[in-house]
From TrEMBL:
Listed GO MF terms: oxidoreductase activity
Keyword Oxidoreductase listed: yes
Protein name (database record): SDR family NAD(P)-dependent oxidoreductase
Xref: Pfam families: adh_short_C2
Keywords, alphabetical: Oxidoreductase
Entries under InterPro entries matching the protein: NAD(P)-bd_dom_sf, Sc_DH/Rdtase_CS, SDR_fam
PROSITE patterns, sorted: ADH_SHORT
Keyword Oxidoreductase: yes
Family recorded in the similarity comment: Belongs to the short-chain dehydrogenases/reductases (SDR) family.
Source organism: Sphingobium rhizovicinum
Amino acid sequence: MQRTNSPSLTGKAALISGAARGLGAASAWAICEAGGQVMIGDLLVDRGEETAAELRAAGHAAQFVRLDVRDEAAWAAAVDATVQAFGGLHILVNNAGIATAVTVEDLTVADFQTILDINLLGAFRGMQAAIPAIKASGGGAIVNISSNSTRRVSAITTSYAATKAAVANMTKSAAIHLAQSGANIRVNSVHPGPHATDMLLGSDAKADLPEVQALRAAIPMGRMGEAREVGAVVAFLASDAASYVTGAELFVDGGLTPH
Ligand SMILES: NC(=O)c1ccc[n+]([C@@H]2O[C@H](COP(=O)([O-])OP(=O)(O)OC[C@H]3O[C@@H](n4cnc5c(N)ncnc54)[C@H](O)[C@@H]3O)[C@@H](O)[C@H]2O)c1
């Protein structure tokens, strides 16, 4: 007799936004390696198709759909495509995001609106589109990718940290609503610290910049995270192993935030 809740995702279908590369792709690998099936949604068509093909080549069930998280119709189509491909939808990972590095004096309203539209409203649209399909599939889990910038800000996190804090609070409201309404859908946020993805570094050359070295030195574990370390946490929260976890913030940051 099994005495622990299972981390297996066998038979579970996931839709992950922004999963062509970076932390989203790592989440796709983690969900697949736990037995799940994955629909990769992204603006980057070639990279997204490539990631899906790599997953299939490793024996996993993975497909790509073009998704712009700013577009409600595209979200509806991505949810439909997932249900068509895998017979249901159990897991939504709202991972797509962009970062800007601008002070309050230099940020324009237009640029603030762009990042709000992707980081905050993109995740909101995703939840609205996916919840009916997750309910129809018997329940599941939503994981929203926030950031450790909800706690640690700098002069240039004006809009980015604001959107990520909003994602964390929106997550909690959705968690409470879905728990109280008996929907059997848990909702949690993941808060990565610095991870060496395209978003943060973009190129190997940037890894040697003094500010990047200082950032690394500030992390108690002395290194940036690897994308797979976020993916594993996403898969855990999506699984029954986290069956009593909802409305939580899980930091994946080598100890940076409590330091
Ligand atoms: N890398 C870090 O250090 C770090 C730290 C904290 C939080 N995060 C968060 O993790 C998430 C993933 O970031 P990453 O580091 O992998 O970055 P990344 O830039 O490598 O990946 C982001 C992905 O989102 C996609 N995307 C952007 N806008 C989109 C849109 N409108 N519609 C659909 N897809 C879109 C991109 O094409 C890309 O594939 C983001 O939400 C980011 O804010 C990253």
